[in-house]
Amino acid sequence: MTPKTIIAASLLALKLAHAAEPLPMSVAVQGNPLGASPACGTGDADPASAAPGTLVRALYEIVSGPAGARKDWERMTTLFAPGAIVSPTTHRGEQFLSAPQSQAQFAVLNDRLLGQRGFYEREVAQRMTTFGHVAHVWSTYETRDRPDGPVRVRGVNAAQLLHDGKRWCILSITWDAETATHPIPAAFDRPRQ
Length: 193
Fold this sequence. Notes:
With about 190 residues, the chain is an alpha+beta fold. About 25% of the residues lie in helices and about 30% in strands. The strands form two sheets. The chain has a five-stranded mixed sheet. The radius of gyration is 22 Å and the shape is globular. About 15% of the residues are buried.
């Protein structure tokens, strides 16, 4: 064997030995082969976490309010799984842009863009599908500058949720706003009056 072959064989043996080592107890939680904490975190559950529909509607309460109002971003954290993703989106001409980020990053962005003006978002329709511990919620929304003002934007939030055996939490949420080229489908919209 050449010296290069011996070194390569030694490195391979070290990698294989390291890969075969059991995970440390801090990673491999006893009884949990994924080595993870409860999916929805260990903090106190918000009452809205009892059901997927109420959980999504609670987000509207958090992001809505008058100009300059402090939003309850701490509450939002309790509604999301640790590591959950919020993906803000926007239309720029023919482009559709998205910026996946943490809840903390979203809170900073929201305060920067909407903090100095009134912003009220409310759900007008909801569709949900569930299977076992997972749910997908389509939540159609309208936004206004004041509660009784004209509708500025309509769109649909898409949220993926998980039930960890104790409560529901959000794994990810994104949305798309209605435009002239893609109106909200009738199945996702509230009945017109």
